[in-house]
Amino acid sequence: xxxxxxxxxxxxxxxxxxxxxxxxxxxxxxxxxxxxxxxxxxxxxxxxxxxxxxxxxxxxxxxxxxxxxxxxxxxxxxxxxxxxxxxxxxxxxxxxxxxxxxxxxxxxxxxxxxxxxxxxxxxxxxxxxxxxxxxxxxxxxxxxxxxxxxxxxxxxxxxxxxxxxxxxxxxxxxxxxxxxxxxxxxxxxxxxxxxxxxxxxxxxxxxxxxxxxxxxxxxxxxxxxxxxxxxxxxxxxxxxxxxxxxxxxxxxxxxxxxxxxxxxxxxxxxxxxxxxxxxxxxxxxxxxxxxxxxxxxxxxxxxxxxxxxxxxxxxxxxxxxxxxxxxxxxxxxxxxxxxxxxxxxxxxxxxxxxxxxxxxxxxxxxxxxxxxxx
Length: 374
Ligand code: SAH
Ligand code: SF4
Known about the structure:
- This protein is α/β, with parallel strands linked by helices.
- The protein has 2 domains: about 60 residues, DNA polymerase, domain 1; about 280 residues, TIM Barrel (Alpha-Beta Barrel), CATH 3.20.20.70.
- It is about 35% helix and about 15% strand.
- A 10-stranded mixed β-sheet has the order 1-2-3-4-7-8-9-10-11-12, sandwiched between helices.
- It is elongated and about 70 Å long.
- The relative contact order is 0.12.
- The N terminus and C terminus are likely disordered.
- It binds S-adenosyl-L-homocysteine and iron/sulfur cluster.
- The site of iron/sulfur cluster has 12 residues, from helix 4.
């Protein structure tokens, strides 16, 4: 069921319209008011370049036109419920949406660039057993505007706090982006063509929704793909990721081959390492085999503990290193991903999990992140 807020009949959210749709909607609006055509371009500039927060900000429009825009359209901005800043600079926002739903996004500064990790759904329906978002369940789909609004509001915050410009965007916050394709693909276009973020600087992370991977492969832009693999063998993977039963590894690999063959689009495998669960060195060989097939880069990530799996711990650092060097020896590029934001509940979905628990104390509470986080 599509309950995305962009679908509402009245007052479309301009933030979620791709640049062509935005221009068409504005041109029709101004034409009906007998206004010159350039007004549409003026408004588009306010949205994409000045990231105006409201129609009132659009000061080179006559007041009557600002009022008319506000009656016809919305600029649906989220409200920052909280901002948590880590000692390492990682900054996590919890956004309150118009209907009260909560989503989070994370700004991750490194010396070379500023990356924004954003959410594509409120919660997630995939139920992966190691993921905080999975355990809080599914709230609803986000509209394209609500995805883009995380970028706009984060960029505004980043500028105000000396973080500079967002250079990379990853869809690795809450939710499964390829289970919300209509809004996610629209948001990709808006970020790419509207805000001018290069397609190669945008990564969509999926747990393996095969039709979505094929759709992304067929697109002309070179958006990047991260596959949350977490296990190279189907039986083991199914213990971590229920979707494995629906799209088992052989089918998934076939889709990835298609993505790889589409050219110029590097695939990354995400591999969260859980001690005694998926970190047996015997798995290095099959993992290297899969990565080599589609020329994937492998990110090894220490598991961030969640309260619903009290026995699961992150693999020790030397095991991650053993995987990394084992993969490299087999000709596969790999990196150990540094935990970021360890002091601010930085694991996927934890802020929302905590906030929901404050609303409903019967829900389990995500604990403060321990020694590692993604
Ligand atoms: N649904 C998409 C994108 C959001 S999850 C996906 O699964 O790819 C973003 C990343 O966080 C995924 O790679 C996921 O596997 C990882 N992740 C989730 N829970 C984690 C945890 N407890 N510790 C470490 N990484 C985790
Ligand atoms: Fe959803 Fe990704 Fe978490 Fe799985 S890992 S429950 S797909 S957010």
